[in-house]
Amino acid sequence: MVGAATRTRTLIGVHRNIALAVTTATVFVLSVTMAPTASAHADLQVSTPEDGESLQIAPEEIRLTFSEELFEELVEISILDADGDLYSTIGVEQTPPPGTDVIFPWPTQAPPGEYSIAYRVVSADGHPVTGTISFSYAATAPEPSTPEPAPSDSTPSAESSTPATSPAASSPIASAPSSSSATESSTSSSTDSSSGTPLVIFGVVLLLGVIATSAIIVRARRRN
Predict the structure, then answer these.
(1) CATH assignment of 44-139?
(2) Which pTM was predicted?
């Protein structure tokens, strides 16, 4: 009986040791598997332009896409020239939803050459992430053409340079006598003719009277 009890205790201890070993191994495997996930931070996934890309003309904007959301107000962008000197600093205060992209315009006054974009962002887990991409371009973007100014009002036009003609010379209606003037002329002439008719009649009657008187005087003299 004593030997059986001792043997049972030994088996129980072995089982406990095996269970403890299995538990320890499981915890170790889980910790190793989950460690990279827990310590992962925001990484740059893609950039436009791409790192090391050579462009024909300058880009209009720069886009950096990260693997995690970023704190909107903790994004810093620096532009370095070919010698590594600071050319410009751009503070990006907001990224478009869901907050994984950083977009900022490229300075149009930057001459052709090689440039580097140094970024510093803070991911949602609070860890800062830094990195650099570089690209180059051979020419700046062409400026939009400005429309030619319209001629000012002070410039003499063809119409203004042509000497003005008088209304009487340019208008055929003005050069010809108007119908109202012709009507007035005919009316005045008819009025003059009508007013002269009684005078003619009076003159004829007077002449006849003188002739009759003369005839009477001549007859009277002959009788005497």
Answers:
(1) 2.60.40.1220
(2) 0.49
